[in-house]
Design a protein that fits this description.
- Chain A: Keywords: Cell membrane, Membrane, Protein transport, Translocation, Transmembrane, Transmembrane helix, Transport.
- The structure holds two protein chains of two kinds.
- By secondary structure, chain A is an alpha+beta fold.
- Chain A folds into two domains: about 210 residues, Multidrug efflux transporter AcrB transmembrane fold, CATH 1.20.1640.10; about 80 residues, Alpha-Beta Plaits, CATH 3.30.70.
- Chain A is built from 14 helices and six strands.
- A four-stranded antiparallel sheet of chain A has the order 3-4-2-5. In chain A, strands 1-6 form a two-stranded parallel sheet.
- Chain B is of the alpha+beta class.
- In chain B, about 45% of the residues lie in helices and about 15% in strands.
- The two termini of chain B are about 20 Å apart.
- Classes of the chains: A alpha+beta, B alpha+beta.
């Protein structure tokens, strides 16, 4: 077993992802430009919910699609129409597997008109009224759902920024949220380019993607944080290299996560699109499938590169990088032996938490177990590693 | 050797999990009623079993959300209306800060569509009456749009009988009743709407122009000459003597209902080309202001109405009753204490024709003024006042039991504190619902199967742990659904099923995090026994942070969103929390136990040992990780 697959499996892919960040940024920029210009030129295909309209669904057993459509059109002509608005059939299609149903969409009707059409259908097809499904949405409803979604987006980003700043730091929060925006823009771009229909369910699906995208980024950043804690204490690795290592170490996990998340959503999409033909399942499935796929990409190729770039502006890490590079050059020249003793500065730079962790949280060999688990934030620190002398 | 901290006593954790299961399912079995099958059925949404749902959205003038207590009051009124209409078992809930959702699972009932319709009830004295002559300029005489709102004690056949409902026919006890002056039927006469209502879009909330701005627009639209002519009108022009008036004012007939609404009541009334069709289609609440005069229609009659002196909230009760003296059906009306005072004052004013003069055209047969009962933008009844009413009052007329009860129900529950528009209607047939349910379950099944296949393929025997965890999660979710359905009325809908399916990925992911960690540890040369607790401690942190994000997303979605998506968010959040429970109480202890077996590191069994195949003979990749260096 060798090759990329094995290396991936072992977490040793050793791909230089962050080093090539210019490529990824270019890719992202191109995608964003394409998406934005598509918004401008092509716009979006808005579903029935945004324009408002009615939908009638009858079992396919009533006859041909043409017959069903004609019947609805005729019923619309006969429906009471005091304000003289043009009523018509917007689309008619057969949906669903098996016998399926006919889905006929019309312009927006008043409740009286909808009731009249339904009554006409009952008469024309000779089926009971409760076998006819009908629904109506007003344009303001679609707008309300979208407004709500936007509000949700703003609140969510605010809450999550706060959480990430507390849990990590502001640079990670910024990197995570910028990758989130990238996901949203590209997902919307795909929708605009392909012309997928946007419904309120789609809009809400976007919000779910946010959760997933951040979830993924958090896992990667968690590893980055672990790898780079106390990094300035030694001079063997720059921040960028440590971050790159973290991405490589979590690469297999990112791919696995992406797969296990996409598999059920794929099932959802399959059922929604092929068996039901329309509705919440399909709309949600599609947006989640597209968005999650992009989220996996951006958590690897965008979030961490952005983080490394931000960190590159920090004087502390700039100086550290220079020190590491200078030391490497020195080793290359043979001035310094690679196994140099630790720099005297190091103890001073160890964080207090680490010291505390070393002092208290690490289990002593042979210590009597206590009921308490070590606090999560301590035990995860590298400093918690038991001494080499521990028996296995 | 004693196990290190953080992983001891797997048995205890499993016992806690077992206890949770026992308690949950005890509640499931003991809490419900009916047969065993009933108790094991979660509450399903109407998109899964068929039914009707109507969403009403409150419209306010400024576009801002209404007050919570007003919304709640409206909800109660709609609920009592549902019961009054005989739509039993309808569930009426508020959603978000401006929606009221009426749903009826299992069967569809079109009556739901009427529940939010009636808006605000006002009693206004009729000042002037004129015929809707807008039809004179229109080519097609379609019947006017008064529709279902008028009780129309149809005057076609019984013109004389109904028009003179004498005082004797209204034995209100306290000096006469209120007689409904029925509207003459349109009878195909000139009552057509010339209004090209394509432009009849109500002004969107939030983006509203002010009334003045709209009026300025109208002024431009109709032209200076027509505007001046309209402003000069003191009364509706007599079309028989002045036929040019129609052509001069023709432009007014093309205004949208919102534009008509911006005009002064006097102008709305006086300009003959403004028709009832336009007036009736004004945005809900257009004439709710009690301190302003208003114009509204009853059938083909356009009426100028005084300020509202009695409101719907003043009515305490109304019912359709069979008149004791054989007069047929009448509507009896009770007022609240303060309402009664206002009503007495209003009837005195109308009876004596005091205060704002009521025009000769507006007098009833007895020469008394009429009082219009205005619901929303239309007049539902305009009885002539036959006495100063100090007690119970009656509206008489040519009612049937149905029309009398309808009017009574409108009077009784008409006082919605808010105006509503019907924003979404859904009628799902039972067969379609069943199909949706099957499809949803199939999607969930396929999702679960794919994840499990992948888990076995990638993690070999460890896949069993994933498999068992997902089963346990599923059982927990199922139990929780039943209990929550009973306790807080949570109904599982299609969107909810999607939420659970999406959460499958989240649940499986926490394994990936853990197992990949485990591989890291083993790669570093650790034994299974020590790798498991170490990997656990580190993975736990990541899992909690990552799941916290999902839960945050679910909570924000749940609080903010409207419609079926709420169910989606709830399901996602619930499943994520239950997943955490399973992670802590099942997976961790089971892995601890598993790590004590010999088979654990066998590549064929766990798929974990595989990372060692190549590395065991060489040194275990030391320079790669900073942690190793620090050690």
């Amino acid at each position: 077993m060798s090759g990329l697959a094995t290396r991936l499996y072992k977490g040793q892919a050793d791909l230089n992802i962050i080093g090539r960040r210019k490529i990824w940024f270019t890719v992202a920029a191109v995608a964003v430009v394409i998406a934005l210009s598509s918004f401008l030129w092509r716009g979006f295909t808005l579903g029935i919910d945004f324009a408002g309209g009615n939908e009638f669904q009858v079992p396919a057993s009533v006859g041909t699609l043409q017959h069903a459509e004609d019947t609805v059109a005729k019923a619309l002509d006969e429906a009471p129409n005091p304000d003289g608005e043009e009523l018509g059939v917007a689309s008619a299609q057969q949906v669903g597997g098996g016998d399926g149903t006919y889905l006929i969409r019309t312009s927006e009707l008043t409740p009286e008109q909808a009731a009249a059409v339904k009554a006409d259908l009952v008469e024309a097809f000779g089926i009971p009224a409760d076998e006819i499904s009908n629904s109506a949405v007003s344009g303001s409803w679609g707008r309300q759902v979208t407004d709500r979604a936007l509000l949700g987006l703003i609140i969510f980003i605010a809450v999550v920024m706060l959480y990430l700043v507390v849990r990590f730091e502001w640079r990670m929060a910024v990197a995570a949220v910028s990758s989130l925006f990238l996901d949203l823009i590209i997902t919307a771009g795909v929708y605009s380019l392909v012309g997928f229909e946007i419904t309120p369910s789609t809009v809400i699906g976007f919000l779910t993607i946010l959760g997933f995208a951040l979830y993924d980024v958090v896992v990667v950043f968690d590893k980055v944080q672990e790898n780079t804690r106390g990094i300035t204490a030694s001079s063997t690795q720059t921040y960028t290299e440590a971050a790159n290592l973290a991405v490589n170490q979590t690469l297999m996990r990112s791919i696995n996560t992406g797969l296990v998340a996409l598999l059920p959503v794929g099932g959802l999409l399959f059922i929604g699109a092929f068996l039901l033909g329309a509705g919440t399942l399909r709309d949600l499935g599609l947006v989640l499938f597209v968005g999650m796929g992009i989220a996996v990409y951006s958590s690897i190729f965008f979030a961490t590169p952005v983080l490394a770039t931000l960190k590159g502006y920090e004087p502390k890490y700039q100086a550290h990088s220079q020190r590491v590079l200078a030391r490497r050059a020195a080793i290359a020249r043979g001035d310094v032996t690679p196994k140099a003793p630790r720099s005297p500065k190091q103890p001073a730079e160890r964080s207090e938490a680490e010291v505390a962790a070393l002092a208290g949280a690490a289990p002593k060999v042979g210590a009597r177990p206590t009921a308490k688990r070590p606090a999560a934030n301590r035990s995860g620190r590298p400093g918690n590693r038991p001494s080499r002398g521990k028996r296995h | 050797m004693a196990p290190p901290q953080g992983q001891m006593r797997p048995g205890r954790q499993l016992a806690v999990l077992g206890l949770i299961f026992v308690i949950l399912y005890l509640i499931v079995f003991l809490g419900g009623d009916g047969s065993l099958k009933n108790r094991l059925e979660p509450k399903l949404g109407l998109d899964l079993i068929g039914g009707s749902r109507v969403t009403y959205t409150a419209t306010t003038t400024g576009g801002q959300a209404p007050q919570a207590d007003q919304l709640e009051e409206a909800r109660q009124i709609i609920e009592s209306r549902a019961n009054a209409y005989g739509v039993s078992e309808a569930e009426v809930v508020t959603e978000g800060d401006r929606n009221i959702v009426v749903s009826l699972a299992g069967k569809s009932d079109d009556a739901l569509a009427n529940l939010g319709q009636a808006a605000e009830l006002r009693f206004r004295k009729v000042l002037k009456v004129t015929a809707d002559s807008s039809g004179a300029v229109a080519a097609t005489p379609t019947p006017s749009a008064s529709g279902s709102a008028t009780p129309t004690p149809s005057a076609t056949a019984s013109g004389s009988a109904a028009v003179s409902p004498s005082a004797s026919a209204s034995p209100g006890g306290q000096g006469g009743g209120v007689a409904a002056t029925p509207t003459p039927t349109p009878s195909g006469s000139a009552s057509a709407s010339p209004s090209p209502s394509a432009s009849a879009t109500p002004v969107a909330p939030g983006t509203t122009l002010t009334r003045e701005q709209i009026r300025a627009e109208v002024q431009k639209k109709v032209g200076a000459a027509a505007w001046a002519a309209a402003s000069a009108l003191q009364a509706p022009p007599d079309l028989s003597t002045d036929p040019t008036a129609l052509t001069t004012l023709e432009a007014f007939g093309k205004l949208s209902p919102a534009e008509v609404d911006s005009l002064d009541p006097a102008m709305q009334f006086n300009v003959p080309t403004i028709g009832c069709a336009q007036l009736n289609l004004r945005q809900p609440g257009s004439i709710r202001d009690i301190s302003k005069q208003a114009v509204a229609c009853e059938g083909p009659e356009k009426m100028l109405l005084d300020v509202a002196k009695v409101e719907g909230t003043d009515v305490s009760d109304a019912s359709g009753v069979l008149d004791q003296q054989g007069g047929g059906w009448v509507v009896s009306l009770d007022f609240t204490g303060s309402g009664q005072e206002k009503w007495t004052a209003l009837t005195r004013e109308a009876f004596n024709n005091e205060g704002g003069a009521c025009d000769a055209s507006a007098l009833g047969d007895q020469g008394k003024c009429r009082v219009a009962v205005v619901l929303d933008n239309e007049i539902i009844s305009s009885p002539e006042i036959q006495g100063v009413l100090t007690g119970d009052s009656q509206i008489t007329g040519n009612f049937t039991s149905k029309t009398a009860n309808e009017l009574a129900s409108k009077l009784r529950y008409g006082a919605l504190p808010l105006t509503f528009t019907q924003s979404a209607v859904e009628n799902v047939s039972a067969t379609l619902g069943t199909e949706y349910l099957q499809a949803g379950l199939l999607a969930a099944g396929i999702g679960m199967l794919l994840v499990i296949v992948y888990a076995f393929f990638y993690y070999r025997l460890l896949g069993t742990v994933i498999f068992l965890s997902l089963i346990l999660s599923g059982l927990l979710v199922f139990g929780a659904l039943i209990v929550l359905g009973r306790q807080i009325g949570y109904t599982l809908n299609l969107a909810g099923i999607s939420g659970f399916i999406v959460s499958l990925g989240v649940a499986a992911d926490s394994f990936v995090i853990y197992f990949e960690r485990l591989k890291d540890e083993i790669r570093e040369g650790r034994s299974a026994r020590s790798a498991v607790p170490r990997a656990w401690v580190r993975a736990r942190r990541t899992i909690i942070s990552a799941n916290a994000i999902t839960i945050m997303a679910a909570v924000v979605l749940y609080i903010v969103s409207v419609g079926t998506v709420k169910g989606f968010a709830f399901a996602l959040g619930l499943a994520t929390i239950l997943d955490l429970v399973v992670v802590f109480l099942f997976r961790h202890p089971i892995m601890t136990m598993f790590a004590r077996t010999r088979a654990f590191l066998s590549p064929r069994v766990s798929g974990l040992g595989r990372v060692l195949e190549k590395d065991t003979d060489t040194e275990p990749a030391k320079p790669r990780t900073p942690r190793v260096k620090e050690a």
